[in-house]
Write a structure and sequence with these properties.
Layout: E1 19-21, H1 22-29, H2 33-41, E2 48-49, E3 56-59, H3 60-70, E4 91-94, E5 97-100, E6 103-104, H4 105-110, H5 114-123, H6 136-147, H7 155-168, H8 178-194, H9 210-214, H10 224-237, H11 245-255, H12 260-271, H13 279-293, H14 296-307, H15 323-332, H16 341-356, H17 362-372, H18 379-400
Antiparallel strand pairs: 1-3, 2-3, 4-5, 5-6
Helix pairs in contact: 5-10, 5-18, 6-7, 6-8, 7-8, 7-12, 8-18, 10-15, 10-18, 11-12, 11-18, 12-18, 13-14, 13-16, 13-17, 15-17
Length: 419
């Protein structure tokens, strides 16, 4: 196998499956070692810890399959894009640019809000004064469901419980006509957020924007105008991103004509994976360790040695820059910085670019926002869950107009044959 070299006993998994080192897998796919982490985070490639605890190993069969899907042979970049992509009019990723329905996502940062972006994704209509309001009955049920969970429950656990409880209160949840779905989702997103317990004292302002409603549920620190602008920007930038794993799950649910609450539940279930929604927490830990140790370059080296990649850097869909990360980091920069975290953030970005040839992705930028705002590491997953709920429903609206149950892959049986 090209680039594989001679294997040692440590190159085989516990079941005897051939394994590749980070360098071997990267050579086979024609990418940098850091890019492998992005493939793993998107669920395109499996990874296991090496027997000696240092570095990672990748199943050779999985690397080969990924290389084949890349369509460029042994030296291809291996993007993992399916041969028959899902046709969508929602998100365009072209070069290093991200667009929602033909508009550059950064346009919404200058003139718009998360609610405006949600309406744009759902209907293609520009609604500058859009506001989402929770339904009283659904909110009471969602709060009750979230409150009975153990204290150790994460915010995303409470979101999942709240969505299920809210669904039960809605007798019209099976209405999947566009107008009904959009009306349902406006109240659902507000209900999801308002059902989370507040960390900061105070009362919710009537008809508050989603960013303002969410902030005190993520941190005790007062937001200020810059903080709310940064959080709203994060929600805008993360509302949709092609057919990510959680989005695909949402589309599959919609293809069976599951109602909007079930669509969001499906998305939340897949987002819960540590290599999807949980990726921001890993980047948050990277920043925290770099601040605590005062040695950003040393922390990068430790991650490379221990994990074979650096969380929060590189992305399989972008070549030189993640536009979401660049835009969000610009919004984070003006935030108060009493602990010197921003200096470390910039040092990590510079070191990764100069020494590793890679760039920060949205997970890193969101982790920077969380760290600077004194949010817990898992707050990053909460932000993604709220933001992506708008995108999941946009994809569901497309799927409701497509043939029923069209996502039905056929399994290839490789087990024991019957006598």
């Amino acid at each position: 196998m090209a680039g594989a070299g001679r294997r040692s006993e440590s190159d085989d998994g516990d079941d005897g499956e051939p394994m590749l080192t980070t360098q071997q897998a990267a050579a086979r796919l024609g990418v940098k070692p850091e890019t492998l982490y992005a493939y793993v985070s998107r669920g395109l490639l499996d990874r296991v810890r090496a027997p000696d605890g240092k570095g990672s190993r990748y199943p050779a069969a999985g690397v080969e399959a990924l290389a084949a899907r890349g369509g460029r042979g042994a030296g291809g970049r291996g993007t993992g894009v399916a041969a028959e992509p899902i046709r969508t009019g929602l998100t365009l990723i072209e070069g290093d640019r991200l667009c929602y329905r033909g508009r550059d996502v950064t346009d919404f940062l200058a003139a718009g809000s998360f609610e405006t972006v949600a309406e744009w994704l759902w209907s293609g209509r520009h609604v500058p004064a859009a506001r989402f309001t929770a339904a009283a009955t659904a909110l009471a049920a969602a709060r009750a469901a979230a409150e009975v969970l153990p204290a150790r429950a994460r915010a995303v656990d409470r979101l999942q419980a709240g969505v299920i409880a809210a669904a039960v209160t809605d007798p019209l949840r099976f209405d999947i006509q566009p107008a009904g779905v959009i009306a349902t989702t406006r109240t659902l997103i507000a209900t999801m957020v308002a059902a989370l317990p507040r960390l900061a004292e105070g009362e919710d302002r009537q008809d508050a924007p989603i960013a303002e409603l969410l902030w005190p549920r993520l941190t005790r620190q007062a937001p200020g105008a810059d903080g709310l602008r940064a959080l709203d920007g994060a929600l805008i930038l993360l509302a949709d991103h092609d057919v990510a794993p959680s989005t695909y799950a949402a589309r599959i649910a919609a293809s069976t004509r599951a109602h909007p609450y079930a669509v969001v539940t499906a998305g939340l279930a897949v987002l819960d994976g540590p290599m999807h929604g949980g990726a921001g927490a890993l980047a948050h830990r990277l920043i925290a360790d770099a601040v605590a140790g005062g040695d950003p370059l040393g922390v990068l080296a430790e991650r490379l040695r221990g994990e074979g990649g650096v969380p929060g850097f590189g992305h399989s869909l972008y070549r030189t820059a993640d536009p979401r990360a660049e835009a969000l980091l610009r919004l984070v920069e003006p935030l108060p910085d009493p602990g010197g975290g921003w200096t470390v953030v910039r040092a990590l970005v510079d070191a990764a670019r100069e020494r590793l040839g890679t760039f920060p992705n949205s997970d890193f930028a969101l982790a920077a926002l969380a760290y600077q705002s004194r949010m817990a590491a898992d707050a990053t997953e909460t932000v993604v869950a709220v933001a992506r709920s708008a995108g999941w429903i946009a994809h569901a609206l497309e799927e409701y107009q497509a043939p029923v149950v069209r996502h039905r892959p056929r399994g290839l049986y490789v087990g024991e044959r019957p006598a």
